[in-house]
Each structure stands twice: as structure tokens, then as C-alpha cells.
Amino acid sequence: MAVRDIILYPDPILKTVCDAVETLDDSVKALIQDLVDTMVDAGHSVGVAAPQIGVTRRVVVVDVSKSKLGRDNNHGQLVMVNPAILEKEGCSTMREGCMSVPDYTGNVSRAERVVVQFLDREGVEKVIQASGFEAVAIQHELDHLDGFLFLDRVSSLKTDVFRRKK
Amino acid sequence: MLKKFPVHRIEDLIIAREDTMNHFALTIIGRDRPGIVAEVTEVLYQLGCNIADSSCTLLGGQFAMILIVSSQEIGGKEPFIDAFSAIEQGGLSVFVRMLKPGGELHPDLRGEICMISVYGSDKPGIVYRVTRELSTRRINITDLNTKLVGTKDRPVYVMMLEALLPEGQTEEDLRAIMAGLKDELQVDISVRSITPVEL
Predict the structure, then answer these.
(1) Minimum distance, in Å, between the CA of residue B146 and any CA atom of chain A
(2) Residue numbers in B near A45 (CB within 8 A)
């Protein structure tokens, strides 16, 4: 449908707790398509959350299958409506950046494995277990739905925050 | 000859304003105690300076501040020296340097970023030997810190550094270079990619 501009901090939309989707109507379907188009267009992106394109509804898309780190361990393109993390396990640290916070990165510790419940594109209830980079991407995108940025999660100082590779 | 350029957009105004900014590098160090940052930044605030990039940390018993500051009004380092004289009398050392235009801009760094951890019994030359290997291969160090830990009898040296690999050099190459040093220096060294992931 349409590639949308990525909303940049300090836009207050990024600090907003998003609303749950009540019915999977045409507006949600259009939103999903815009999220997928925007993710694909931003070649390097492995996920986009609805608030990043200016919509405060609980929808994200994640696809790590095209990235070096996620290539061998993924569920392909995930469309997640009203996602919720049911279980978390383990801990690993990765240096994250975000399209909505350009030129800044920081080390973030997140769960290594997560069990996530969500509605897929067709409104079917799904539960998956994700690990590795896919789990990190899911947690990062879901944070957006609650108004959290990776800046709220940086785990330690000193050599931690560094400008991202261009 | 003085030329006048028409200004149409707000972006042009911002750029025009940026152009007239002078940038300074400030280093301040002294015995640690609560209040150093507030005292230093109060002076900068009174001078009308903006703090851009900065890094401040505790090294041994000394608190060290490194800052890049900007000012539209100040054209040399003298006003800083005057303004900081009271702070210097209080025991902090202040060093100021005016940057050449463009010196405040972050270079466009591209490539894999690797973290190198080096640790082992303290001995002379650990930092020198590791960084010389990087230097001869044109590998740029973007961050480095060291710490002396362990006990007086058995001091342990820890160095963590971040390095940017130029095109054509890989994490494996770097690992091979460091493996050679490991034997020579009798220390433990590990290398891992910490290239950020964009989400």
C-alpha cells in the first residue's frame, strides 16, 4: 500500500502507550501492509512498530530472516496484532540502534528466549517461541507499543553508547 | 567582497547559525568529590556555552571530564581561563583548546566494530603492543579504557577497547593477530564483533 515515513524522537507518539486492536478491520489490514512496506523499503530494518509510522495501535511486524544474525533461526515474516510476551528466559546483551533514534546506539540486555502470543494477519491466535536475534527484535518492537525506547533499557555505561555504523 | 545570500528556509537559518559557532575542547581533572560536575557546568552555563559531546569518569581517585562545548560569542580560550580560575584554585586542573572549524564534527565511521578484551598479570607494554598491532594495520581505536585490579602482590591488568575494522579486514584476521600477542605477552585476549543492530 504505502511506505510511510519513520517517526523520529522527540515525537511524543513514540512515548505513548498504544491501544489494543478491537477488530481486525480494513484499517488494521491497511496498517499492517504499511508496516510491511515500510520495513521492506528500509532495507536494513528487521522490524517496525505502528507508533513508528504514527499509529498508536498495538501492531508490529518483525522479519529477521534477511539479516545475517537472524538468517538461521526465525519464523519468517511475523505480523503481530495485540502481542504479549508470556514467558522470558535467559539474558543476552546486544548493541541496539533504532530507526526512530538516529545516530545513537547502546548495549541492551534482553531475554534470550521469549514465548509470545498474538493475532496474526488473519486474526488467528498464535503462540510462538522465539530465540536469539528474533527474540531481541520482538522485544524491541513490543517495547514501542508501551512507549519504551532502547534508551530506556541501556544496561551499563562506559564504552556502551556509541554512534552507529552508517 | 561581501556577498549576501538570501535566506528562505528555517534550515538555512539554522545552518547559518551553526556556521558562526566556535567549538572548544575542555579537559578538567581533579581529586574526586561530590559537586565537580555541577561547578564546572555552572561556569559553562554562565558563559553561555552549549555542551555537545562529553565523557566524564572516575580514574583512580581522580574525576576526569572531557567536553566539546560551543559558543557563538566566545572567540578564544581566554574567557574560559578567566571563568575557571576560581575552580582551578579549588584544586581542579582545567585545559582548554579552541577547535579549528569542522573539528567538532563526528567523522563518518564505517565498518565492523570489534571489542577486544585483554587481561592478565600486569606487565609493561600491554597497551603499547596491542595498539601498535592495530596501528600498523590502520585499525582505528574508537574507545579504550584500562583498569588495574587484583591485589598488590598479584596485580591484574584489564584493557577493553573498541576498534573499527577498515574495509577488507575481518574479525577473523583480528583474532589471528591477537592470538600471536597472547603468547608473546602471556595475557588472555578475546575479540568479538559488537557492530550495532538496527531494529
Answers:
(1) 11
(2) 198-199
pLDDT 10s digits, A44-78 = 689 999 999 999 999 999 999 999 999 999 999 99
| Cβ pair A96:B110 closer than 8 A | no
A142 dihedral zone (left: phi>0; alpha: psi -120 to 50; beta): alpha
Instruction: Look at residue B198 and tell me whether its pLDDT is greater than 90.
Output: no
Residues of chain B found within 8 Å of residue A158, distances taken between Cβ atoms:
57, 145
Q: Determine, for residues A158 and B106 on separate chains, whether the beta-carbon distance falls below 8 Å.
A: no
pLDDT at A22: 97
Specify the CATH number for the domain of residue A51.
Answer: 3.90.45.10
At B10-57, the pLDDT tens digits run 444 444 455 589 999 999 999 999 999 999 999 999 999 999 999 999
Domain count, chain A: 1
B10-98 belongs to CATH 1.10.3720.10: no
Chain A CB within 8 Å of residue B108 CB: yes
Cβ distance B109 to A136 less than 8 Å, yes or no, reads no
A159 within domain boundaries? no
Same CATH topology for B10-98 and B113-193?
A: yes
**Segments of chain A assigned E as strands:** 47-49, 59-62, 78-89, 92-98, 101-110, 113-119, 125-131
Please report the ipTM that was assigned to this predicted complex.
0.73
Interchain proximity B198–A95, CB inside 8 Å: no
Residue A118 domain boundaries: 12-152
pLDDT tens-digit readout, A103-123? 888 899 999 999 999 999 999
A141 labelled catalytic: yes
Topology, domain B113-193: Alpha-Beta Plaits (3.30.70)
Is residue A65, in this structure, part of any structural domain at all?
A: yes
Pick from A137, A143, A80, A145: nearest CA to A112: A137
